[in-house]
Amino acid sequence: MKVVVAGSGIAGVVAALRARVLGNEVVLVGSGRSASSRSLGVVDVLGYMKGGEVGNPEEGIRVLSEDCEEHPYALLGVEMVRQALEFFKEAVAAAGVPFMGRTTENIHIATQFGTVKPTCLAPEGVYAGRVERWHRRAVGIAGEEERNFSPRFVAESLSWLLPKLGVALPERIEAGDEGDIVLRPMRQGGTEAALPLLGDGEFVVKRLLEHAAALGVSVVEDRIRGARIEGGEVRAFMGTQSYTGDAFVLATGDWTGGGMHAFREAVLGLELVERSAEHFKKLPLPEEGHPYSRLGVRTDGALNPFYRGKKISNLRVAGALLGGYDYCTEKSGWGVAIATGYVAGGVG
Ligand SMILES: Cc1cc2nc3c(=O)[nH]c(=O)nc-3n(C[C@H](O)[C@H](O)[C@H](O)COP(=O)(O)OP(=O)(O)OC[C@H]3O[C@@H](n4cnc5c(N)ncnc54)[C@H](O)[C@@H]3O)c2cc1C
């Protein structure tokens, strides 16, 4: 089969890799910067749910699936999510950026904002620097001051924050101090304890794209502006040229990636999950999340979307373009993108 994937963020590249590994001819068409490349490059699977922190993401997905049937994790089921994340770990290892962690356990990592966040899978260095290892050890934050990173600020903020969180009791935190654990900005991976910075996702995606190209995926720089639909199926994605195929994946992201434009799916105008009546909120960023964040494309369990009331059976949607979930509040960004990318690419 010939599979055409639009969008070269993490969801698109995982979809392309899976489709290729299954023996398909694959074209990956993408253009512009992605949310994936702006991110920290760690895999949040499920960090928060119902206002509380999640210790075991697999367990969290089981509970969430009972209450929230339109959530992408509920559509796929926990077994498929686990399988997808195993596939991702094998792919990043083959691409030269091994990730550590288990889908049954969240870890905590420090951020460049001097905060601590839960995540699940992380590049080796970030995993080695996880907060769980700080107990009664000295921790130093090293690195040069730059536009949006100050080691001293991170250290001061963590010294204040950690006793309140009770997640670790380091002996002391001092900027640049050569203590037991010294966190340095991650940049290009490596096994030494590292602090991920915004934008580190870019090299993970870049390595995966190189890996995909080495496996025979044809990676093309172009912007898809529409699609040719005949007999209820997509025949081609239209960019500066026409990309014909048998199966199609749309992984163009949300407002950050460009897949959503205002309240519309930008390429085809696919149907969205119903907008909540309470989308007008007093606060722009309420703690329980904003209904706006849940807006995105509606699909069935196979990730097929709907267009003018009818399902398109040879098109699948993956990643942040999907509706029914809120990655900002849940901390589920790369987790959902990888799981749905894996399923969307599972053709042939
Ligand atoms: C600042 C920030 C930090 C984050 N940090 C984390 C984190 O550390 N961990 C985590 O798990 N999640 C994080 N998230 C969330 C996570 O990054 C996203 O949920 C995830 O990357 C979405 O991946 P995606 O592939 O679906 O979309 P994107 O990464 O946005 O990729 C979409 C791609 O499609 C391309 N595209 C769009 N329209 C077209 C078109 N018409 N034709 C061709 N190409 C097109 C875009 O240019 C882009 O390359 C963060 C998000 C933000 C904004």
Mean pLDDT score, rounded? 93
Major β-sheet annotation: 5 strands, parallel
CATH topology heading of the largest domain: FAD/NAD(P)-binding domain
The number of strands is: 22
CATH class of the largest domain: Alpha Beta
Q: How much is the radius of gyration in Å?
A: 20 Å
Q: By CATH's scheme, which homologous superfamily of the largest domain applies?
A: FAD/NAD(P)-binding domain
**For the terminal residues, how far apart are their CA atoms?**
6 Å
Work out the strand percent: 15-25%
Bound molecules: flavin-adenine dinucleotide
Provide the number of structural domains: 2
Strand order of the largest sheet: 13-2-1-17-22
Enumerate the spans where pLDDT stays under 50 for 5 or more consecutive residues: none
**Number of H- or I-type helical stretches:** 10
Shape: globular
Proportion of helical residues: 25-40%
Brief account:
The protein is α/β, with parallel strands linked by helices.
